[in-house]
Amino acid sequence: MKIVVLDGYTLNPGDLTWAPLEALGELTVHERTAPDQLLARAAGAPLVLINKVFLDAATIGALPQLRYLGVLATGYNVVDLEAARQRGVVVTNVPAYSTASVAQMVFALLLELTQQVGHHAHLSRWGQWSECPDFSFWDRPLIELDGLTLGIIGFGAIGRRVARIGQAMGMAINVHTPHPQRHAAEAAQVGATFVELDDLFRTSDVITLHCPLTADTRQMVNEARLRMMKPSAYLINTGRGPLVDEEALALALKQKRLAGAGLDVLCQEPPPVSHPLLTAPNCFVTPHIAWATRAARQRLLATAATNIEAFLAGAPQNVVSR
Question: Is the separation of the CB atoms in 92 and 49 below 8 Å?
């Protein structure tokens, strides 16, 4: 059985083994695939794995031997699902592999914003602590999280993990989710309060985004809601870039209507060097790495292999379209 990975580099830049997939068939791995290379590389392969390569209806229609598309990620908006259904192509994803890593990244960004670790480490390296007359030196406010309110938008696996970490750090937890009744037990475990969306923006000291990107959530963090936030509040986005109106956020930071932002995702990735958030004050932008710990990528690869095994056994799992 021929298996083709069209863009495998970000999953495995060399620190993992492809052995779990090699055991299932004749494996070909391409680090990256440009649109004009896609058809030639996928031709004749019943099993194709992708991460960010886009398969539209025309492409799916031009691959008559295609039986299975495995998305090497949780989000599957890179596939025309309706075209896959019409062709009888099974599409799977890999859910929940990065929960621990993304939750960790939320607090890495938040602690950088509030404790200013990197900034003060650089000042020490540049000699400013050495020149200080006192034993202790800081030049920016240092913020304690204990007692602050953490607002979580979305209460799936990552949102719930973030809530537990926030609770452990002494934070009060507010949550907005379309289906609070589904998560009553989990909310009770962390003392979370379900609130309306605008109330969450008004009352939270930290807001972190963990909801899917839909027509309703696109640019949910807009100019109006940014003006609802406390000037001392922080925004964290490790979800999807288009959840945020980036121009409005850059302006809010520039005008000091917001204390800071930590973003691991942007609308365009990689961003142009002129992107306004790359130079916005007290804004930390990281290059979409929350998912990319070795442990998370190892889980992703293992689940991708078990997804194929299940498909070949006639009982596909993690199916998003069939």
Answer: no
